[in-house]
Amino acid sequence: MERLDVAEVLKGLPAWHAHAGDRPGIERKLVFADFNAAFGFMTRVALRADKVDHHPEWSNVYNRVEVLLTTHDAGGVTQRDVDMAGFIDEAAAAMGAKA
């Protein structure tokens, strides 16, 4: 799988940011109305992730969800991450998330 330039990827994903950690990735922080909405979002994404066999790194505290996408096998961001980010953006909008 071809590794993509993070700066170029982010041009098409305005809600996402470059991961500031020790490896290339993209991340997004989301805020929902409450825990149920956050968990519902995570469930929707988890079902998709399992279907496409590409799983996010994420954390959840009450109504907040932080998501990191990277393709470990490629050592950075690939089209799989871009596709998952697009799905996450759609799911977040449907669940009423705030940036």
UniProtKB/TrEMBL annotation:
A Gene Ontology molecular function term of the record: 4-alpha-hydroxytetrahydrobiopterin dehydratase activity
SUPFAM superfamilies: PCD-like
InterPro entries: PCD_sf, Pterin_deHydtase
EC number(s) stated in the UniProt entry for this protein: 4.2.1.96
Catalytic activity: (4aS,6R)-4a-hydroxy-L-erythro-5,6,7,8-tetrahydrobiopterin = (6R)-L-erythro-6,7-dihydrobiopterin + H2O
Keywords, sorted A to Z: Lyase
First-level EC class: lyase
Swiss-Prot/TrEMBL GO biological process terms: tetrahydrobiopterin biosynthetic process
CDD domains assigned to the protein according to its UniProt record, in alphabetical order: PCD_DCoH_subfamily_b
Matching Gene3D superfamilies: Transcriptional coactivator/pterin dehydratase
Family to which this protein belongs: Belongs to the pterin-4-alpha-carbinolamine dehydratase family.
Protein name: Putative pterin-4-alpha-carbinolamine dehydratase
Organismal lineage: Bacteria, Pseudomonadati, Pseudomonadota, Alphaproteobacteria, Caulobacterales
